[in-house]
Description:
- The chain is an alpha/beta fold.
- The chain is built from 15 helices and 12 strands.
- The chain has a 6-stranded mixed beta sheet with strand order 3-2-1-4-6-5, with helices on both faces. It has a 6-stranded mixed beta sheet with strand order 9-8-7-10-12-11, sandwiched between helices.
- α1 packs across α3 (94-107) and α11 packs across α13 (302-309).
Amino acid sequence: xxxxxxxxxxxxxxxxxxxxxxxxxxxxxxxxxxxxxxxxxxxxxxxxxxxxxxxxxxxxxxxxxxxxxxxxxxxxxxxxxxxxxxxxxxxxxxxxxxxxxxxxxxxxxxxxxxxxxxxxxxxxxxxxxxxxxxxxxxxxxxxxxxxxxxxxxxxxxxxxxxxxxxxxxxxxxxxxxxxxxxxxxxxxxxxxxxxxxxxxxxxxxxxxxxxxxxxxxxxxxxxxxxxxxxxxxxxxxxxxxxxxxxxxxxxxxxxxxxxxxxxxxxxxxxxxxxxxxxxxxxxxxxxxxxxxxxxxxxxxxxxxxxxxxxxxxxxxxxxxxxxxxxxxxxxxxxxxxxxxxxxxxxxxxxxxxxxxxxxxxxxxxxx
Length: 367
């Protein structure tokens, strides 16, 4: 069947029409320059896409599925209400996805819509990895736990890595504007770096990654910062932007190469956290067979890849400098000769993972 994949960002809507063999029949990005696309634009575009072939289903990337949605699900009014209730857990991402869902459902009301979740891949992590050491009331009644994100990307990258290497124990590094790692064994997520929100873990473009919660309490009680002030600072004014004055990794790398102190510090902090967390993911797996880089930074920055593995020789990880520099995509093996761990660069293909989820969901008889 043809599947339309819908990936909504805060200011753009990416549409990918995939054929039965997963070939991309059409790719359209709406609203990136002028803000969120209006319903008329979506309706017109969908009309154009449906003329390319019978549209049997639409798959939507939804960031947060909570604990209720751990597999792709056919969208109904009840499902929509439950997803709306989760908005407070992902206020920067859920509204855009739900808006796109509403627009597409209105434009093609007779086509089945399936929600696929970024949190679902991590939903089966063991309790030791999902549980915070906080009061029981928070955990049992407020839903406080580690959810993890970027699951669609991690799931595809891990599956692709197994196909290429056969290794059971895989660490996937999704490095882009947002960044996270996942530890995957036999296709099942064991641990990840993001937690209750997409703020925990690695340093990102504008997000801080993990900071001492005591610091946040101090900023509130001693400095007088409000929750809104902290949210804005940690999500939008931290990370590479706070350290180097730019959220663009390419600029950071160039400034570091030129010896600029801010760029050098930003890159060093980024790589320090990245190396440490890759090692932590390997520890959760009891060893490592394959390390995978994916996402915009992971695929395009040989400096970041080389810097990340520079301190991981004790795990058996090393990249071949020439292969690392020469990568042009989509997928490459950049393992150094003699390394016991394979290192891959895999193109991020959330669209394929969503289409796979849609077909699996409908194969179970859901309508």
